[in-house]
Design a protein that fits this description.
Length: 788
């Protein structure tokens, strides 16, 4: 309970910070959807308006197949690149043929020389080289004369380009693009009107976002004020809560003290021995009785105070539980919550100018249902988002879009491809470029230029020459010379020719793909594209204006649809997504747990427990008193009684006091004789009445400290001291010796006639009875003991 009390301000502050974080996030969501997102939409719509001509023209070209004109323009525009590629291919082919002729001449010379030299060499190595490398068959194996001739195609393309084929086809493309420019020019006159209408919607959405965020800001101000109040509450809790804590701790200590007394009393009473007065234990039944009576005294002294404190706290706890916690946990149809709604006019805080029926119970219920902030705070009182669907008529968007549609039109007599351009395109198709067999480049140049690797042969010849025996210097020189020639020809002719061959193959493959235009050949592609452009031109002149109007209508509807989709998204998000109130519900429940579950529940539990303890004190008192009386009883002496001999006492008027108790006056005065009621004193004449009794158990001689006086019926003149020895059992010895002294009076002479008032025996009055009456028995007395 103390921990919950100390942590309450921090827990409430955390909950308030969570609510504030939720409100700030919700404010950002509202700002993003109504301001940021609409600004992005506005930019996108303006870009669409600026590109309206291009959009409509592209759709028109796609529908009318005028897009083929773009492909024709690309073909014509690529003629310059094609001409350059053909020139490169023609140059490479010419160089390869020249180098091949030169290579063939030098290879033949080396072959003849090697055949003569190797034939003159008689070593096995020479014969092996001649056999392995087949020197007699060494030659240039690539026939470069079979490569396709591109001279004719190159000449035709060059002539077409000189005839301005590129410009004529480009003029047709410009004619088509003029349609786009005309449409865009017409639209540009209406764009400011449409943009202004869109801007008005944006201004309205921005003002709506501002109003909602201002409402949230007012709530945040109240939360900040509550946080400051929490700091004040924390100060007082830290100052005064320890007092309440120590009160509860003191009451718990009192209850614990009572419990300890009861516990020790019961343990001593159950496990301890009965008190008998002879060396008792410290924890006997008598101690248990005293512990129980101590508990009774504590209960009597403090119960009234505890009862008042407990009743006050229990009443406070019940009132808080019924008036605060239960209404907060169940705000549905709760009278206390209705009273809170009347006191806390939250609608005036939220809507100072236009109060409505928003109250705390409504907010709490809807937050528990995880509704959006729009529904929880009834923001429809600020603006009904469903009315956004009526924006088209309110902001005159439809009229501006109709004006935009009327501006979009197509002029008749559109010429996108002249007859001269068609003729030149046909000449391009028949230029022979499509007749070039580009695959032959790959097939012919795939083989090695020579059938023998000249470099490898050169290395082998040098090895053979090094191994020749002495006396063949001429052959050695010839082999070395031929080896060096082969290396030179390989580096200067074969390698450059191989590089040119790879370059020629790459150019051929690239050019073949470039001139096909997704057709089998360039001629077929040009004929197909020319037919498509011709049909597009006929469509534009015949059905183009009507179709452009349809495109304008579609464009306007698509434009409005984007605005509709955005506003519909705003409506859906406001009603279903933005600012779901689940975090507030969690913070609310956390506050209830911090206040009710962590403070009030242990508070009520503690004081109800104290109340039950006070009620249980009533039977506890009765039981303690009864048990205390039982625990204080002592056990009787378990040994037998021995009757002592009493002799005649001439001085009956004296008290017969046992010698062992002469000095124990306190013991005598406080002794209790359970059998004293059976003795009576009959006066100086002597005589007594005694009820005969036989004790069944040993009785302590401490009960017999006073004795009756007996008259001396027949006194003697001389006293005689007699000693009588008695034995009786005790705890420590089987028998204790007890001595009693009796005095017998004999005749004696006293000077001066005796003491004052003394009467001789002869002058004494006669006894009442001459029969001797025996005095009562003298019971066994074990000796002095602990009077306690």
């Amino acid at each position: 309970m103390q921990d919950g009390t100390k942590e309450l301000p921090n827990n409430v502050k955390v909950s308030l910070k969570d609510v504030k974080l939720y409100l700030n996030n919700t404010k950002e969501e509202i700002y993003n959807i109504l301001k940021t997102n609409f600004d992005e939409l506005e930019i996108n719509l303006n870009n669409i308006l600026q590109a309206s001509g291009r959009i409509i023209t592209e759709q028109l070209a796609e529908y009318s197949h005028a897009v083929s004109l773009t492909n024709l323009s690309d073909i014509v525009a690529g003629l310059e690149s094609i001409k350059e590629d053909l020139k490169i291919m023609h140059t490479i082919t010419r160089d390869l043929r020249t180098n091949a002729s030169q290579l063939d001449i030098v290879v033949r010379g080396v072959k003849n020389n090697l055949l003569h030299t190797l034939a003159a060499c008689k070593t096995q190595n020479c014969k092996q080289v001649l056999h392995d490398y087949k020197v007699n068959q060494m030659s240039v194996q690539v026939d470069f004369d079979k490569l396709p001739n591109v001279t004719s195609a190159l000449h035709n393309i060059t002539m077409l380009m000189k005839g301005n084929i590129v410009s004529e086809v480009s003029q047709g493309k410009e004619s088509f693009l003029k349609i786009q420019k005309d449409i865009q020019h017409a639209v540009n006159q209406t764009i400011p009107v449409v943009s202004a209408s869109i801007r008005r919607i944006g201004v309205f959405c921005s003002s709506l976002a501002t109003n909602m965020t201002m409402l949230i800001d007012r709530i945040n101000v109240e939360i900040d004020r509550s946080v400051k109040n929490l700091d004040f509450a924390r100060t007082h809790i830290d100052q005064y809560s320890p007092y309440r804590y120590y009160v509860g701790l003191g009451i718990s200590g009192i209850l614990l003290t009572v419990l300890m007394c009861l516990t020790f009393g019961l343990f001593c009473g159950i496990c301890g021995k009965r008190p008998d007065g002879y060396g008792d234990d410290c924890c006997n039944k008598g101690s248990g009785a005293r512990f129980l009576m101590m508990a009774v005294w504590i209960i009597f002294l403090l119960t009234s105070v505890l009862m008042v404190i407990t009743v006050v706290h229990m009443v406070i706890g019940v009132l808080v539980q019924r008036a605060v916690c239960e209404p907060l946990k169940n705000p549905y149809d709760n009278r206390m919550f209705a009273l809170v709604d009347e006191i806390v006019q939250i609608n005036k805080t939220l809507y100072p100018q236009n109060p409505n029926d928003v109250n705390m119970s409504y907010i709490v219920r809807n937050c528990h249902l995880n509704e959006t902030l729009y529904k929880v705070l009834k923001l429809e009182n600020i603006y009904n988002v469903n009315s956004l669907r009526e924006y088209a008529g309110r902001y005159d968007i439809n009229n501006t879009i109709q004006q935009l549609r009327r501006k979009i039109s197509l002029s008749p007599d559109v010429v996108i491809l002249t007859d001269s351009a068609k003729s030149k395109l046909n000449d391009l198709a028949q230029s022979g470029l499509s007749d070039i067999k580009f695959y032959q480049y790959v097939e012919i140049l795939a083989d090695n230029i020579t059938n023998i690797n000249l470099e490898h042969l050169s290395k082998q010849l040098l090895e053979v020459s090094a191994e020749l025996p002495a006396g063949q210097d001429e052959i050695r020189v010839s082999l070395e010379k031929n080896a060096l020639d082969l290396v030179y020809y390989h580096d200067q002719l074969v390698r450059p020719m191989a590089m040119l061959s790879e370059q020629l193959v790459t150019k051929a493959v690239t050019l073949e793909e470039k001139i096909k235009f997704n057709h089998s050949s360039m001629a077929e592609a040009i004929h197909h594209l020319v037919d498509e452009v011709t049909k597009a031109q006929q469509f534009l002149n015949k059905d183009g204006p009507e179709y452009v109007q349809q495109l304008a209508t579609k464009f306007g509807n698509a434009f409005l649809r984007q605005v509709d989709d955005f506003l519909e998204r705003v409506i859906i998000y406001a009603l279903s997504n933005v600012g779901r109130c689940g975090p507030v519900s969690n913070a609310y429940n956390a506050t209830l747990v911090a206040g009710c579950n962590k403070i009030l529940d242990p508070f009520n539990g503690f004081w109800v427990s104290v109340g039950w303890c006070l009620i249980l004190f009533i039977p506890t008192i009765v039981l303690c008193v009864k048990l205390s009386a039982l625990y204080q009883k002592s056990d009787p002496y378990p040994g037998p009684l021995v009757e002592a001999e009493y002799l005649y006492d001439a001085y009956a008027d004296r008290d017969n006091i046992p010698l062992t108790h002469v000095h124990d006056k306190k013991y005598v005065s406080h002794s209790r004789d359970p059998y004293a009621k059976y003795e009576s004193y009959d006066g100086p004449a002597g005589g007594y009445n005694e009820r005969e009794r036989v004790p069944e158990a040993h009785q302590s001689t401490s009960h017999y400290h006073h004795y009756s006086r007996y008259s001396d019926v027949a006194p003697n003149s001389n006293p005689t001291w007699r000693s009588h020895e008695h034995t009786a059992p005790s705890k420590t010895e089987p028998h204790n010796k007890v001595f009693s002294i009796s005095v017998e009076t004999q005749n004696c002479d006293f000077p001066n006639g005796g003491p004052p008032g003394y009467q001789p025996a002869a002058a004494a009055p006669p006894p009442l009875s001459t029969e001797y009456e025996r005095p009562p028995p003298y019971y066994y007395y074990p000796g002095p003991g602990d009077t306690n």
